[in-house]
Amino acid sequence: MINTDVIAKANALVSADLARDYAALGERLARRGVNIDTVKDRAKAFGVAVPSWGTGTGGTRFARFPGHGEPATIFDKLDDCGVIHQLTQATPTVSLHIPWDKADPADLNAKAQTLNLRFDAMNSNTFSDTGDEHSYKFGSLSHTDGATRAQAIEHNLECIEIGAQLGSKALTVWIGDGANFPGQTHMGRQFERYLASMKEIYKGLPEDWRIFSEHKIYEPAFYSTVVQDWGTSLLTAQELGDKAMCLVDLGHHAPNVNIEMIVSRLIHAGKLGGFHFNDSKYGDDDLDAGTIEPYRLFLVWNELVDAEGTPGLDLAHMIDQSHNVTDPIESLMISAMEIQRAAVQAALVDRAALAAYQDDNDALMASATLRAGFRTDVEPILAMARLETSGAIDPIMAYRASGYRAQVAAKRPVVKGGGGGIV
Ligand SMILES: [Mn+2]
How many angstroms separate the alpha carbon of residue 278 from the centre of ligand 1? Predict the structure, then answer.
């Protein structure tokens, strides 16, 4: 963790400016009938999970360029997650990936407690081989070979078992199964095998657990993917039962797809379970949330704020990105704050006015009313929420002043660059 004196010193440099900015914004919002302190409370209540694997430098199919002081173990990763939450106060939970993060659950719980962290959804991995008897080269839960499917099912059940000891309440299943050639697989039979496997996993869910089905249009399979879009994901969730929900990864759609509309439809179906936030320009680019299309992120949150109070709507929010050219801690902090920003901006939309304009078919004013939320600079609200919860007014400035990366680089083993690999 970062010395609290470092944070206090960094905050002292800008706290007077923040107080003035907050007061000025408060006055402007009051003219719109909005109480700034209520909005600030919403910012304080916000939380998004950090993926453990996001703390390491990512890569592409071509290469990976490791940074200094990369985490070597899950405990190093948790240390980094602790720093992210300490400074932003927006990431109270961590999402683990098995088998990458396997360790004694008692040790994981003890470590998380010292860092004020909890564990969010578990993630299984049947998209790469990690030494098991059967290979996932040609698929996992939908594999033509029953023994390979059984191994993949068993792995998911093990993830639940580990997660249950960590206080997790959900399992996210994403598979790389699909095909690279037309004719390579029978698409119908492949999906049926997938469903049958998912039903076996579903049977192993504790009463208070949920299972999330995550779709992805392409990659690693480049012709067809078993769970390729939200339609297949919804089919799966509906076939499995009440504890099965759909997870929307913002990068897993075809270009230009209207993601906020998918969000609305899944809410209507009572099957929206959560998100993997990231951003993209072309495909599943796994870029930092809010850096390419901040308005799209806002529109997704607009749907979520609009649906607040819907019975059964209980969403798991997680970041899922690959940080190839930045310090992952800095990217994760910025991303968490961008997601928080969109959530807070969406809360500023005058919903009564918007509904009236919609009912009057006043397209121009409806659009302008929506955008008024997006155009409001809520940074003073986010910063004040951080300051009042012992975080940093400017997390990047405080992080750089702390020298944390250099300190851990002196202790952690040097990682050499080399071959490709997405994560
Ligand atoms: Mn994802």
Answer: 9
